[in-house]
Amino acid sequence: MTGGLKIARLLMVLSSLTPLFILWGIRGTKAVDDTIWLAICAAFVAIPNLLLLVRWRIAHSSNDERTISIRTSKDQSEHLLVYLFAMLIPLYDANLGEKRDLLAVGAAFVLIVFLFWHMNLHYMNLIFAFLGFHVFTVEAPLTTQPQEDRTRTFVVLSKRGSLAGVKSITAVRLSDTVYVERG
Amino acid sequence: MKGEFNFDRIVSTEFCVSVKDPADVETRFLIPIDKSMQKALRQMLLGTVLQLEQPEGQALVGYEFGEKYAAKESLVAPLGADELSVLRDLYQEQNWVTRAAVMQEPQRITFYVGVFHDAARRRVFGIRRAQSFKGLVKRRNGLAAMVNDTLRLLEDNVFKLDEDFDFLITSANVYVLRPVGFELIGEIKEAVLTKAKERVVEFADSIDFINFESLAEYVGKHPRAARLVAALYARGDLAHVTKARLVKAASQTHVGLEKVKGKLVPARGSELGLLELLDHRRYITSIKRGPTEAFIAASRARIPNA
């Protein structure tokens, strides 16, 4: 799934790491002065989320939307759990005591951000979860022919509990592969 | 047309462009658009529908492959027609990949598509050739706009939406406003040529006194003849043609016929003439004194019986 809006996707990945920066901010580190550390964490929390909100509002107000025909859908909420346990908690747990520890964690952080950005996993966002959105991946057939095998995958954030039986939805574009259902 | 789509309740509007790659393969891409573009596309759609509409009680004229049309017409063709496979495949497409970057290479855009959904999730496609759409791109250096009270040259590519579509596709029909755009995008000429050879031979089932095999090679190479074959095939009334009347009409309209092995074949140079005659395009008039005059009608329409 290649996609446009590269900067928007990067910001969404950073936004998905908001819980990490909040926890790091609370925890602090001996390697960096508290004021500076808190300012850095606050910036990493505020800026990406603000820009994500701006992107969302622009998409809504300009009606940047499309209709997606759905063949199958899958609730990917368990990915959030995997993300929490496999990524967020180990990063939080990492030793930040010394400058070299900080550099090592920083390098791991950059690598994880790149991987999430490159693999279009920018929808792994607890903020969406807090707002009541479920994460679905939908397989969308490329033609209306019932025997069509080729599909395209989209990520759809929806407040519905399930998309089973839903033939099509109209959704606002957050990025070229992530859409938020209206309503 | 209004039974196939609710033009008053359009719930979503999308925009695609068709791009030709260096291997001459065409692919559609979805281009994200905002409210203003959606509104403009809906206006294009409604403008097209208004021009296609006929007075109360009158049906749209059926598109005929053998006919020569004016620049603007109001025609309808069933989407299920064999020759419209390209448009059928196009209408079946959905869930296109989003790729705004293709707008950076406007020279590769061949046509654009407005995709409209109504409240019942039915779709209509509005299609237009992209000539004037990208016509301003080369003239970009001559375009200026007022920005902060100052006139400035526009740096970006500028595209111009047209006022209406060349044709519309619904689930059942194609509604044609501009036959040239319809025929180019639908690759009608190629489809007609491909089918002409096998179809002309099938005419023998309806008219057993003409040897159509002699025409097969000819129609496979001559687009005008192939179109007449497509028109005759669509009509399906060749069985009513009688030998005596055909021979008389051929003589009056200078279509040479010869007899080979008991069947009529067109004389060399009269192949197209025979097809025109069968498609009611060769006729004589006798409204004045003197010899009767024969005519060929590139375009003709049946006068309804009183």
Would you mind describing this structure in some detail?
The complex is a heterodimer of chains A (183) and B (306). In chain A, strand 5 (168-173) and strand 6 (178-181) form a beta hairpin. Chain A contains six helices and six strands. A six-stranded mixed β-sheet of chain A has the order 1-5-6-4-3-2. Chain A has 183 residues and is an alpha+beta fold. The two termini of chain B are 27 Å apart. The mean pLDDT of chain B is 88. Chain B is elongated and about 80 Å long. The longest helix of chain B has 18 residues, at 35-52. Chain B is 29% helix and 23% strand. Chains A and B meet through strand 1, strand 4 and strand 5 of A and strand 1 of B.
How are the SSEs ordered, and which strands pair?
The complex is a heterodimer of chains A (183) and B (306).
Chain A: H1 6-16, H2 18-27, H3 34-61, E1 65-69, E2 72-75, H4 77-93, H5 99-118, H6 126-130, E3 134-141, E4 151-158, E5 168-173, E6 178-181
Parallel strand pairs in A: 4-6
Antiparallel strand pairs in A: 1-5, 2-3, 3-4, 5-6
Helix pairs in contact in A: 1-3, 1-5, 2-3, 2-4
Chain B: E1 10-20, E2 26-30, H1 35-52, E3 61-62, E4 75-78, H2 85-92, E5 109-118, E6 123-129, E7 144-147, E8 150-153, E9 167-169, E10 173-176, H3 179-185, H4 188-202, H5 213-221, H6 223-235, H7 243-252, E11 257-260, E12 263-266, H8 271-278, E13 282-285, E14 293-296
Parallel strand pairs in B: 3-4
Antiparallel strand pairs in B: 1-2, 1-5, 4-10, 5-6, 6-9, 7-8, 9-10, 11-12, 13-14
Helix pairs in contact in B: 4-5, 4-6, 5-6, 6-8
Number of continuous helical runs of chain A: 6
Compute the separation of the termini of chain A in Å.
26 Å
Order of helices and strands of chain A, N to C?
A: HHHEEHHHEEEE
Query: What class do helices, strands and sheet pairing of chain B give?
Result: alpha+beta
* Helix content range of chain B: 25-40%
* Beta strand % of chain B: 15-25%
N-to-C SSE series of chain B? EEHEEHEEEEEEHHHHHEEHEE
Which stretches of chain A are poorly predicted, pLDDT < 50 over at least 5 residues? none
Largest β sheet strand count, sense and barrel closure of chain B: 8 strands, mixed
Strand order of the largest sheet of chain A: 1-5-6-4-3-2
The residue-averaged pLDDT of chain A reads 85
Distance between the termini of chain B: 27 Å
